[in-house]
Design goal:
The chain is mostly helical and 115 residues long. It has four helices and no strands. The protein has helices spanning 2-33, 38-45, 49-76, 82-108. Helix 1 packs across helix 3 (49-76) and helix 3 (49-76) runs antiparallel to helix 4. The radius of gyration is 17 Å and the shape is elongated. It holds the Pfam family Sdh_cyt.
């Protein structure tokens, strides 16, 4: 039953990520073709709840999706099972969430050079 739930959760996160990836790519293409600098990008994203929610949702979906996918790889190729496999999945997902969350915070709300 757990495997079915994880399978469905991975598919749901994939459906959620698809439009977010397209939106991210559209923003990146616009920024590159428009010659927008990193400072200009940060000027537009700092203090923006909309960008925080967009990229925050993206990070959560990627963290869940990636952790479940890596769990499958660790089980099939690495032979991990039981609590070790579950701990690996949760640990990897948490690392992705922390790193992605820090990046989103830095781009949307943190201020200063060392943010």
């Amino acid at each position: 039953m757990l495997t079915l739930r994880l399978y469905m959760l991975q598919r749901i996160t994939a459906l959620l990520m698809a439009p977010l990836v397209l939106g991210h790519l559209a923003v990146m293409i616009y920024a590159i073709q428009g010659g927008v600098s990193a400072a200009e990008i940060l000027g537009r994203t700092q203090g923006s709840l909309a960008w925080f929610l967009f990229y925050g949702t993206f990070v959560i979906a990627v963290s869940v999706h990636g952790a479940i996918g890596l769990r499958t790889v660790a089980h099939e190729w690495g032979g991990l099972k039981g609590p070790v496999l579950e701990g690996f999945m949760w640990g990897f997902g948490l690392i992705l969430l922390i790193l992605g969350g820090r990046a989103v915070w830095a781009v949307t709300f943190a201020t200063g050079v060392n943010a």
